[in-house]
Here is the input.
Amino acid sequence: MQARRHALQEADALLRELDVPQDAPVDVFALIEKLDLELVFNNLRTILGALVPHGDGGIMLSTQRGAAVQRYTAAHEIGHWVLDHEAAFDTEADLYYPTHDREQLAQIFASQLLMPPPLVYATAGRYGVTNSPTATGPSVYSMARDMGASYEAVVRQLDNLDLISRNKRDELLAIQPAIIKAQLALGHRPAGNVDVWPVDDRSSGGAIAVTEGDEVIVMLPENRTTGYKWLTEDDLQARARRRVHPAPPTESGAQAPGPELGWAPPATLAARPRQDVDRALLAIRGNAGSTRILPGAEPTGEETDELGREGDETLDLQAGPRLRPVEDVYRSSWTAARPSELRALRRSIARGEPLQAAIDRPPAPAHGAVDSTAPSAADLLVGGTGTRVLALRSSGEGRDTFRLVYSSAYDPSAASTESYEIDVTIARAPSTARRQHHLSVAAEPRGDDEPTEAQGHDQGGPDGVDGD
Here is the structure.
């Protein structure tokens, strides 16, 4: 107990010594720089981080994990530097399930350093986390994302601060962060170890700060039966190229079809030849071929790195900030059909067949029997408002603005009835920022006799770290 108390006190003392506010996210990489420790990133596959105490000392972090895990690992290595000053090569088990006293103390130090109590209490209050019943997977994940820590580290810190019980801790640890992210993003699953930032119509005009590779999930209400949609700038340009044709003439005194005239959707749909319906469906993207194609998810065949970025984007240090749509889907309010069921559901509607995929029921009986309890096309709700979900992948560094307008998807002369805008500030991933730092240092003019930082690393350097 005395050693644990000492680890907590050392973390608090370091924050005070370096004049770090304890009610705001802690920049652990800035702490490493203030401690004059060398920081490098490597493609480490068996360990998450290492401490080299020789010379001036250095910390090495794996590029195989996201920024949140890298921050927590860095805090853990600082703990070794402050508490025992011995070499360390830490695996995931050492960070999250330590069995040795040395690793347990470094874990306590890291939690206190990266997540000081004032910061945890303030962030918990923002998401209404006051005890075990109020601590849900999405709320705790949101806390971890805002504090720049890993989900598992925040769960354990909540336990350390007695905000949740041990049983609640184990319950939360059993939830995979990927499942929580998909829940917050209404089914969208981001690629790689990145964070998701869900925003809705209440966020219009606001601003958020993300790390390169993170995905901003824009969720807006949309009623497609009106012909109006949220349109991007590209959509507006495409709409401007449309030609408007006049409505066909109607006979004098003719009335629109309706139930009083004996018109019924199932009979009308059933009267159409099946082959004509299937031929028309082929014109809709995602209905042809054996592979379902999601709107906006065009495969490029390029390899992705651990952050889900394509190609060698981590070395393109001059690229500007960018928000690129990676998925664009519509979640109807009248059905909970999974994305894999949408094509079959669309075919059933067009053919006037029972909508088995539209409801949460067992599959239809064998031998081709028809489920008479399944709704038909005549039962569809008209005018229901669903949710448009756009997943935007961030890249580069700086500020980008994403804009949408709500207008007719077909009439070029239609005015906009509503607009949506959000500013996103994108920060470089820690490993990319460190590469950028090394390049900027190497590019600085130096005297003839003064070695560059890169030359110092090539020669081994006093810290015993041979670069990244």
